[in-house]
Structures are given as structure tokens and as C-alpha cells.
Amino acid sequence: MRTISRAELRKASADQLKVLSDSVREEIFRTVSACGGHLSSNLGAVELTVALHRVFDFPRDKLIFDVGHQCYAHKLLSGRAPLFHTLRKEGGLSGFPKREESKYDVYGTGHAGTALSAALGLAKARDLRGEDYAVIALVGDGSFQNGLIYEALNSLKLLKTNVLLILNDNGMSISPTAGGMHEILEELKGPARERGVRLLEEFGLSYRGIVNGHDFGALLPALEEARGMLKEGSVLLHVATRKGQGYPFAENAPLETHGVSPVPAGREYAGVLGEELSLLAESDEKICAVTAAMTDSLGLRPFFERFPARAYDVGICEEHACVLAASLAAGGMHPYYAVYSTFLQRAYDEVLHDVCGQNLPVTFLVDRAGVTGADGETHQGVFDLSFLLPVPNLTVWTPKDLTEFRAMLRASGDFLRPLAIRYPRMGEEGKGTPFDGKFEVLHSTTSDIIVYAAGERCIKIARRVLERAQGVGMDFTLVNARTLKPLDREFLLSRPEKFVLTLEDNVLAGGFGDAVRRTFTEEEKGEISHFVRNDARSTLNREVFSFGYGDNFIPHGEVESLMRRFGLSEEDIFAVIRGLYARG
User: Fold this and answer.
1) Are 515 and 413 contained in the same domain?
2) What is the residue-averaged pLDDT of the chain?
């Protein structure tokens, strides 16, 4: 697809814009089919994005996408069409808006609910600098459930600035949208719409809508009107679109085509979760499930179908989901809160105070832990160990395979304290060894080197390194560090090995390796002491070498390539072991 200038857009007829939209939609489908990505959400936003580029003058005017996964047409229309085939590939275009990628991406996004706050800040900066441009926040109805949106709406009158809020209403987040605000938005589509209009206008917005988001005859005049109204105040333009528009299979299966990716090897942990949690709930009526708009992605659909009275999808509201879980536990239930690692970050205060501060029996199921790949910086789950391990009262487990994950889930049924189980997307079955809450020796030898690997990915790397080492006459003891908090302190301190290596699919700062080294340091000093991490230091006559990710945000790319590039390199681990052998 060739680059389209704004001058061409301004002169194009509605029929020509329709042809352009078909071309954009075809390019999105072709590229996502090859590279993976968010399909149905982008197909549904094509005409709206084309119309925005026709009416407004980007990048002089500022467009902010909430979440940002629906920005593909914007990338194609902003000079990046020649690079679009690199979408989500390492070194290529990001699947989300990214400030360093283009001047058209004025604010980076990736998580829901931030666009209106960002628009208000940009608009206020404009006012303070005496400049003149439009600021537009494009927000989906799924994001419109997020509490941050209402914090921004609450300050709209206070900030005394003007923005255009476009509500892209397709009735979906990842799963179908539900809840009180969804019902109000549905009311706006019918004859009894005055209540919803009054509610939205109380925030200081002039409401316009509902506009057919696939009809240029309706879209263009509505956007022109909204642009003119910005001189007097803020505007909410309510646009109705259809997720997957233009491709019937995507229209009919918007959930399944929300995110498209090549099928990786193995099986998803989410599938095992759905099976095992449902089995647990059959014999324990206290078990319930909580999720934030991720029912299917997290494998909870079987639970929701079998136990609807004990299953709660609260929409894109991670903080609320966490407090709901805490209060369910306070009321005598045993909630399981399933959430991606990257989205658990949003509920950290609630994890800290509401769950762990009250020592409540909530089990966090932390999916997509570690590097996740093509979605980039905002979705890499590489921080959860660092923010969970310091929290008092919290226990943290990580399974070595799907079989051990099942064993941990069964053990969690009787674990009536805060618990987090972290795991990557894909896994493999393993041997049915018992889970006793302690470290597990996977391979033992008399070598003076011991490797502690946390989680399935790191164990796989360690096993490959072990096979390679044994091929040249070297060896080491390999341990499955499956209980990350509390650490198996007795095991750590009883081992005789002088050289200790730790592997974790997490940033090094504050992670598993730090906890191991701190254990040795505290034992050596006989007290809990301030600790500063170094790459290796002597503690109780041991040297500790930690492998994980450094002080970086990890960009998009292939999972294994990113792991090697940013700190979990099989070559580097083998080189350290070879060097230790050379030292004798």
C-alpha cells in the first residue's frame, strides 16, 4: 500500500475514501495474517481513522489511542506504510503507539483507560504555551469501564481545557462488554437516551451521537461539527462500529480474532487452569474466580459456564477486581484472581494493602509472566517478581511444567493465605513429581557449581546448558527453584557448592537472584541488613552469578530472541560455567 498524503485525503470523495478504507483493511489483514497482531479491533476502526485523518491535521493536531492496539490504520496513514510489513517484528514497527517511532504517535499507550487523562494533559500544555491545535482521545467502550477514565472526567471541568473524546462503541473489550456503564451506552442507542446524555454532559462534555462509524456520509460531518465545537468546550462524539468489519469470519468471531498469532509449541497454561480450577470448585463451594475482561484469554470460560454464581468478570478494572477478591475472602470465600503479569502492575496497591496487608486467602494466577514477545514494552511480564517478592504475607510459586502447575493448583485449595502462582503462556507436560513447597533437585553431581532455575523457561535453558556442559566433561547440580517466597532457606544454606548461578525470567533488580544473594548475606552477618546487588560477590564462601534482565524496557520481538538478547543467553551461562571450571 502506498503512502497517502493529507492533501489527497482532503480532496477525496466519500466513494474514494471507501476504496481507501478497503485498501487499508486489506493491508491490515494481510500483515496480521503474516506477523500476528490485533485483527478485529483494527478492522473495526478503519473508516473512523480515515475520517479523522481527513478532518484533522495530524501531527499538528494530537490523536491519542486508548490501549493503542487499534492504531494500525493510523500507522498506515502516517507515512509508515512502507514499513508495515515489519509490524511487531524485532526492530520493526510496534503494535502500539510509540513516541520514538513517529511524530504522529504523540503519546505511548498499551494499557486501558489512560487516553483521556493524557489528552487533558496535552490540551493543558497547549493552553499554557499559547498554542492552537485539537486534542482527540479515541476510547473504546471496553476501556470506558476503567476507573481512570472517570478520574479524568472528574477533572475535566477543573482543568478548564477542551478536548474531543471519541467513544468507539463496538460492544466489546476482548470479551463482550458488560456492566452498568455498558447498559447506559446501550440506552443511548435507543429512544430513552436522555438519562445517559445528561449523565455524560454533567462532566462538562457536549454529547453528539450516535454516528455510524462505517459511513463516511455520517462520520465526516459529525467530525467537522465536533471540531468546530471545540472552540467552545469539550465534546463527546459517540461512534458505533463493528469489531471485525469487512471480514465476516472476524465479524462473527470478534473474541477469537481480537488477537491473532502463530500457534506456538506446547499447550497454554490457561487451558490447564480452566480444567483444574473447575475440578477444585466441584468439591469446594468457597472457590470463586475473578477476572478483569480476560475470561477466555485466561482459560476461565469452563469455570464461568459451570459455576456462573461464583464467576465475576468486572471489565477492564484490575484494581477493583483485586479489592473484590480481597473482600470476597474477608467474607469467607476463596477467590482466585487470574490476571496477566503486566496488568497486575495496575493493582499493586490493592495487592499490598487490601490482600496481603489483611493476610487474606486470595490466590493470584499470574499469566504471561516473563517476556511475552511481540506486544512490546507495555506487555512484557518481567517485573512481577520484583514487586511481589518484597510484599509481607505473600507466598510465590512458579511451576516447572504443566504437571507441576496442576499440583500447585491442588495445593492452593488448602492454602488459606495470600498466594501468587506465576507462569508463562505456553508449557509442556512433565513427570508427576510431588509438590511439597520446597526446592526440587533435578540433577545432582559432586561439582562445585549449582544452578537454581525459576520457572519452566529457565529450567529448559538450564537443561540445554547442562547437556552441553556434559558433552565436554563438565557438570553441575540443577535445582527447580519453584518456591520463590519464602525461599527454601534451609536448602540454600545446606548446599556445599561454592559457585551459585540463578536464572529468572524477570528483571534482576529485586528478583529471585537478589533474594538468594540476600539470604547468604544475612546468614553471614547474622542479621537482616541493607543489601546492594552486584553481579557476583563472596557470601559464606560462595560466589553468586545471576542471570535475568537488566535495567531496560524490553521491546517487541520473538520471545526466545529477546530472552537471549536481554540477559538469558545460553551462551553466556555456558561461558560462566566454563570459566568457573577453568578456575578449578
Assistant:
1) no
2) 92
Q: From the CB of residue 335, how many other CB atoms can be counted at a distance below 10 Å?
A: 26
Quote the cell numbers at residue 147.
476507573
- Tens-place pLDDT, residues 419-455: 999 999 999 999 888 999 999 999 999 999 999 999 9
Selected catalytic residue, list 62, 346, 406, 422: 346
Cell numbers placing 268: 497454554
Report pLDDT for 175: 61
Known catalytic residue: 11? no
Give a yes or no: residue 103 inside a domain.
yes
Give pLDDT tens digits for 345-363: 999 999 999 999 999 999 9
Does 570 participate in catalysis according to the annotation? no
Q: What is the pLDDT of residues 40-60, one digit of tens each?
A: 999 999 999 999 999 999 999
Q: What is the domain count for the chain?
A: 3
Q: Is the pLDDT of residue 535 over 50?
A: no
Q: Is residue 433 part of a domain?
A: no
Residues 202, 331: one domain?
no
Cα 493–Cα 498–Cα 501 angle in degrees, nearest 5: 85
Q: What CATH number does residue 476 fall under?
A: 3.40.50.920
Strand spans (E) along 356-498: 363-367, 395-397, 419-422, 426-427, 440-443, 449-454, 477-480, 483-485
CATH label of the domain that carries residue 320 = 3.40.50.970
- Residue with the bigger pLDDT between 209 and 99: it is 99
Do 183 and 140 belong together in one domain?
A: yes
Point out the catalytic residue in the list 243, 301, 425, 482: 243
Widest CA span in the chain:
83
Q: Are residues 452 and 484 in the same domain?
A: yes
Q: How many CB atoms lie within 10 A of CB 22?
A: 13
Check whether residue 139 and residue 226 sit in a common domain. Answer: yes
Q: Would the pLDDT of 2 be above 90?
A: no
Q: Are residues 164 and 48 in the same domain?
A: yes
Residue 328 near residue 314 (C-beta atoms within 8 A): no
Domain assignment of residue 377, yes or no: yes
Instruction: Note whether residue 165 is domain-resident.
Output: yes
Question: Catalytic: which of 318, 319, 350, 440?
Answer: 318
Question: Using one digit for the tens of pLDDT, what is the confidence trace for 74-122?
Answer: 999 999 999 999 999 999 999 999 999 999 999 999 999 999 999 999 9
Q: Show which of 215, 245, 275 is a domain's final residue.
A: 245
**In terms of DSSP bridges, do strands 259-260 and 37-38 run parallel, antiparallel, or are they unpaired?**
antiparallel
Q: How many CB atoms lie within 10 A of CB 247?
A: 17
Tell me which of 371, 400, 427 is where a domain ends.
427
Find the Cα–Cα–Cα–Cα dihedral 277, 278, 281, 282, rounded to 10°. -140
Q: Specify whether 346 is catalytic.
A: yes
260 sits in the region (left: phi over 0; alpha: psi -120 to 50; else beta) called beta
Range of the domain at 276: 267-427
Strands (E), 424-496: 426-427, 440-443, 449-454, 477-480, 483-485
Verify that 556 and 484 share a domain, yes or no. Answer: yes
- pLDDT confidence bin for 538, thresholds 50/70/90: very low
- H or E element, residue 62: strand 62-65
